[in-house]
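tokens incoming
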């Protein structure tokens, strides 16, 4: 079990006007590079145990890096039974993410290709490698539709639950797999903190359902480039979870993201990514609406 750091950020809480304790959960310090390190290993292990040796993934960066590290580690431990991974990324992937993945690969069993339609390509590869009986020989690692992805976040829920009387968690959200998995983990423990998700004005697939009028996406892409799920397979589930936990869904613009990055730097001296900063944007927006918290609040720093 890998435990990521979490600490109280009193100065930041004071700066934003939060009257209860504020905790920062550093999923960006996970050894697999981000919060995706919670789900990807479970998925790969499950399918390896089912005899699958070939995988494909489409990613905006974090999931691909996690899968690369998991498979490299597996192959080092099983040199006579190696598994393979094909990574597809889009043409708009930030250069630093592409370089990070490429520099990490350094093995012939893992390849990466930058293409126009990475998700559709990954789908087609799995389809082409599925027989008439439904047996798959190349598995598409897709968290947004895979129930195995949820299980990894149960451990994250256990770690956050060590914060006494935890009342709310703010989660940067693309497909909502993390948020759904966390809620299921909390339910298993027997607690029900508010679940708040934060998306961007470039991709508000889920959050827009909580507002009467949402402007069209801006011409300038969001700084938080990991929020990319435009389908939202878990939309119904997470909407029900947010309502049952008395949370909310928030939408962040680039100015709000920049403000949160500055506030975090000034109060904690941490340099964080725009994707991680989304969690503070959501909390700040809640406080402006006089949102009530009865106990500590946690914000997730999810990764690059």
């Amino acid at each position: 079990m890998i435990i990521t750091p979490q600490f109280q950020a009193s100065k930041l809480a004071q700066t934003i006007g939060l009257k209860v304790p504020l905790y920062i959960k550093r999923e960006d310090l996970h050894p697999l590079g981000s919060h995706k390190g919670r789900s990807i290993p479970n998925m790969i292990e499950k399918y390896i145990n089912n005899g699958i040796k070939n995988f494909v993934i489409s990613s905006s960066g974090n999931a691909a890096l996690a899968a690369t590290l998991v498979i490299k580690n597996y192959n080092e431990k099983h040199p006579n039974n190696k598994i393979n991974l094909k990574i597809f990324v889009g043409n708009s992937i930030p250069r630093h993410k592409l370089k990070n993945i490429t520099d990490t690969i350094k093995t012939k069993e893992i390849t990466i290709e930058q293409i126009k339609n990475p998700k559709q390509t990954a789908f087609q590869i799995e389809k082409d490698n599925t027989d008439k009986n439904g047996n798959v020989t190349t598995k598409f690692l897709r968290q947004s539709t895979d129930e195995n992805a949820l299980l990894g976040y149960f451990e994250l829920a256990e770690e956050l639950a060590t914060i006494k009387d935890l009342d709310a968690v703010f989660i940067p959200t693309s497909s909502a797999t993390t948020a759904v998995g966390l809620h299921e983990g909390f339910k298993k423990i027997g607690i029900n903190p508010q679940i708040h998700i934060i998306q961007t004005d470039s991709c508000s697939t889920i959050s827009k359902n909580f507002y009467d009028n949402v402007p069209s996406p801006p011409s300038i892409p969001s700084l938080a480039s990991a929020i990319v799920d435009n389908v939202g397979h878990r939309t119904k589930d997470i909407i029900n979870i947010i309502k049952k936990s008395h949370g909310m869904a928030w939408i962040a613009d680039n100015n709000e993201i920049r403000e949160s990055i500055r506030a975090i730097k000034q109060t904690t001296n941490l340099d964080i990514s725009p994707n991680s900063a989304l969690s503070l944007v959501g909390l700040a927006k809640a406080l402006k609406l006089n949102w009530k918290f009865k106990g500590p609040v946690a914000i997730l720093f999810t990764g690059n």
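note: The first strand starts at residue 6 and ends at 8.
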